[in-house]
Structures are given as C-alpha cells and as structure tokens.
C-alpha cells in the first residue's frame, strides 16, 4: 500500500485533521515483476539464436565454406558486426532487467587495481588502435586491493574506456588512472573528447539517456552502458560521477572500497590531485 497524509488546517494554521489517501499498488508491483520477467525471458530466447548466427558467420568468414569472393566477405563482415551489436544490446537489456529485479549477483574477492586495469586495457587496445587512440595508464603497482567482482569491475572499465575511445578525436590519448582515496580506490578514465553539457552530467547515468549532439549521433548506442556501470559501482558500495568541460574532454571517475585493513600506511592522496 502507498500511503499519503495531507494535513487540513484552519486559516491560522492549526491542524484540524488529516486526509489519508491509500492506493493499492499490489497489482502494479505484480505487473512490474511480470514485465521484468518477460523482458528477461525474451532476451534469453533472442540470445541463443543470435549466438548461433554469429558462430556460423565466423566459420564462413574463417574459410569453412571455401574462399569467398571479396563482395561476399564484405557483406558477411557487415552481418557479423551487426550480430555483435545485437548481442551487446541483448546483454545490456538482460543486465538492466537483473538490476531492476534486484538480482544482480556480486561475488567479491580482493583484486589488484593494476591487474584489473591491465586486463581492461589489453582488451581495448585493438579498438583504440582502429581509431588511432593511445591508451595510457597511470596505476601504481602497490595500491591496496579492492573488494570486487572481477567480471563486473571489468565491465565498468570496459564501458568507460570504450566510451572514451568512441568520443575521442582521432590521434588523441585516453588516460586510465587509479589512486587510493580515504575509503577506497578511485579509478579515472580521462578523454579529450567533446565533453558533456553541465546540465546533463547527471542525466547520462539514467536509462536510455543520450546527449543529443553530433558526437552521440555519430557513435550510435543505446544509453544503457552508464546505467549499468552506476548500478554495478553502487552495488559494490562505491560512487560514480563525471567531470567535464565542453570542448575539452571528460573525466569519468568511480570508487571501489578496499579490502578490510587494506590501506597502505602512507597517507591517502586527496581527491582531485
Ligand atoms: P551509449 O554510449 O550507448 O549511448 P552510455 O550510457 O554509455 O550509452 O552513455 C550515455 C551518453 O552519455 C552517450 O550517448 C553520450 O551522449 C554521453 N557520453 C558517455 N560517455 C561520454 C564521453 N566519454 N564523452 C562524451 N559524452 C559521453
């Protein structure tokens, strides 16, 4: 039940009584649950055939059906790239429906920030090279270990780094940095892209929200990536935010708590240094 109470006062402000409004939301919640379950089921059912199409295309492109004429190779490559896009979209929708159902599982283990960043950068290097972007890291080896789900933390870094690459001008640099803060480790992904208008830096973490500018139209996307990042970071007990200047670039930052007693004896480096 949703309850709402409005005081009724006389002209001098004395409370004479209260009006109570009760609304039965049992049906709505049930409907919400069914909707989430429906979306999860449909996404699952879509993913299986998509994965099989991707596999078949991979085999043909790999030469399983003999040499391909160049035109066929080109068309099949387009088909495979779009299959990849669809699978990414389906995975994002599945993640969102898990988050909304409160069913995102987090398996925490102590992880070295340097290892986590190294793995993410290795995986993103090919994409960065395609766009002539240099990925640079500044992550001290001896940082305290963070308590995190390795795959989920990887997903956050992947998302932020791939956004940074997508929005960066050709030939520029993306910097990935990690520092200890008072209660955890702060990761920064810094780009020299178009930046985000100040009135929208909060909105971009909302579902399906995309800034309406040339850069976003050109890159294509669903507006789900940052929503998923935010849910993952908050599920770990951390925070995520962006600082951005139009025409200069964006810095996406998030914090992850360290393992108990994990901080080194040195004083933490203050935020913003
Ligand atoms: P998508 O990238 O699929 O649109 P996201 O949730 O990852 O979805 O991002 C939402 C929006 O935030 C993007 O459409 C874009 O407008 C903006 N954005 C995200 N990262 C950056 C960035 N590094 N530089 C500029 N704009 C960004």
TrEMBL record:
Places the protein is found? Membrane
Where does the record place the PAC domain?
Answer: 1-37
Q: Which residues form the Histidine kinase domain?
A: 41-260
Q: Its domain of life?
A: Bacteria
| Protein purpose | May play the central regulatory role in sporulation. It may be an element of the effector pathway responsible for the activation of sporulation genes in response to nutritional stress. Spo0A may act in concert with spo0H (a sigma factor) to control the expression of some genes that are critical to the sporulation process.
Protein name, UniProt field: Stage 0 sporulation protein A homolog
The portion of the full protein included here is 235 to 507 of 755
